Amino acid sequence: TKLSLSTLKDASAKAAIPAYTRDSLTAGIVHFGVGNFHRAHQAIYLHELFNLGKDLDFAIIGAGVLPSDAKMKEKLAAQDYLTTVVEQDVAKSAATVTGPMVDMIAAPDFAGMIAKLADPAIRIVSMTITEGGYFIDPATGHFDPKHPAIVADAANPDQPKTVFGLIIAGLKARRAANIPPFTVMCCDNIPGNGEVTEATIIGLAKLSDPDFAEWIHHHVAFPNSMVDRITPATGPREIDMTRDAYGIDDAWPVFCEEFKQWVLEDKFPLGRPAFEEVGVTFVEDVAPYELMKLRILNGGHAAIAYPAALMDIHFVHEAMENPLIRAFLAKLTHDEIIPVVPPVPNTSLQDYATLIESRFSNPKIGDTIPRLAQDGSNRQPKFILPSTADRLAKGLDVVGLALVSALWCRYFEGNSDSGKAIVFNDASAERLQKTAIASQQDPLLFLALDDIFGSVGQNDRFRQRFSKALQHLRTHGTAKTLQSYIDGSL
Ligand code: NAD
Questions:
Q1: Per CATH, the architecture of 287-487 is what?
Q2: pLDDT in tens, 208-267
Q3: Would you say the CATH fold of 287-487 matches that of 5-283?
Q4: What are phi and psi of 283, to 5 degrees?
Q5: How confident is the model at residue 357 (pLDDT cuts 50, 70, 90)?
Q6: Pocket of ligand 1, candidates 31, 32, 36, 37: which has the most ligand atoms within 8 Å of its Cβ, to mutate?
Q7: pLDDT band at residue 53, thresholds of 50, 70 and 90?
Q8: ipTM for the complex?
């Protein structure tokens, strides 16, 4: 049956459906980036809360600023903004039709977005727009005022097209109408994600109205958060499985693991949903949780993606079934990453790493190596290089971490060990590939990519380790190189 509000009863034969009605909901949140992760995470916490009959005035209005988001809106609108979320765990699978989203505004209706942001009912503006969506120069970690999209928004603050320009315009309209500002809640995987979001918004506001930038700094809350749930992209496989196993014709279902986690700072001046009732942890300082997750989980993903790609492995669980990749990840995590992760309240880092290993090994979730390998130009500097920098600063060795960087470089030569062509999905792919190929003459050319490696690329110990690992990869291939690292002979 084609998914819609009027066919929910049919869907309930094989899936859970909302305990709340659409009519009982009113919007309280605008969310930018209605991708898969949002629909498996924040939207699920809200769905569970609404099922308890609570905070029904915090429903979601989706917003999308990219041209491709108009397609998303079309698909979602055709099914009344319902999403089937399928949890795939080793022991069981379960489908839930979720309905916390009540509308969506997509490009090019930017005026509609600003009007909605100015609506006093909206108390939270949240976002999952990918790590690369924040106009931050990866090497310096600072806002990049020269990006063409930023230059355009700064020149036309009344007709913005970026998420940040829209938020500024919305805040301005609220101030003009004496409506207090909403909370801005970033849910992307970025260290200090609230602070980064604030820096981008204030950086952009300063370019056209420095006084207003100052006002934002004093009046708008930007809670930091740690978000976690492995959520692969949706393809024909997922659409077919939703139809075949659950009898639901959903144009854009979401598959994810059963595990989910959200650690959040409690800074919501206009109030917030009672998320603590559905398992969200509120803390004073998210930083230790975030660092643990970014370095062990996201770092782990960023470490196994490239050796797996070079060995023609497609699924993440298949990578974990490969004894060399599994041992490489374990040694890297325990010998190099965990020792520079600061302690986390009430948490054993060893147990956390064991949990991550079993989550990566989940054979049912269908997460793919191409998804993990994409966007490395934004991910390596956030997930891998900070561990490298911390170890170097302490005078510690970086054999495994330098090998991760070397694997990434080798990947950008463009062919796997068996000679298969690699398809890249990275905004900087062209430049990376050119540099990776040039580095066959001199490995240090790759580390001279300053915007990515920063000062780590200038460190002698790192340069030595990287060059040796890269040489080894090129001469002996990925499997033998991983083996040498595991033996301690690399
Ligand atoms: P997705 O591709 O399904 O969705 C990405 C969304 O972001 C889309 O709606 C897209 O339109 C929007 N977007 C992309 N670039 C943008 C830009 N420059 N400006 C504005 N909007 C932009 O991806 P996803 O799986 O939903 O992941 C999105 C982000 O969520 C990740 O980058 C990560 O930071 C976070 N996250 C994802 C997972 C996961 O397992 N998928 C887990 C934890 C956190």
A1: Orthogonal Bundle (1.10)
A2: 999 999 999 999 999 999 999 999 999 999 999 999 999 999 999 999 999 999 999 999
A3: no
A4: -135, 160
A5: very high
A6: 37
A7: very high
A8: 0.99
For the chain, domain boundaries: 5-283, 287-487
The verdict on the CB of residue 412 being under 6 Å from ligand 1 is no
Residue 393 Cα to ligand 1 midpoint, Å, equals: 32
Residue nearest to atom 14 of ligand 1 (CA): 129
DSSP 231-278: -PPP-HHHHHHHHHHH--B-SS-EEE-S--EEEEE---TT----GGGG
Q: Does domain 5-283 have CATH number 3.40.50.200?
A: no
pLDDT of 140 reads 72
Task: Indicate if the pLDDT at residue 138 is higher than 90.
Answer: no
Q: Rounded to whole angstroms, how far apart are CA atoms 161 and 168?
A: 11
Q: Is the CB of 368 under 6 A from ligand 1?
A: no
User: Is 183 in contact with 122 (CB distance < 8 Å)?
Assistant: no
Any ligand 1 atom below 6 A from CB of 251: no
Supply the residue whose CA is at minimum distance from atom 35 of ligand 1.
188
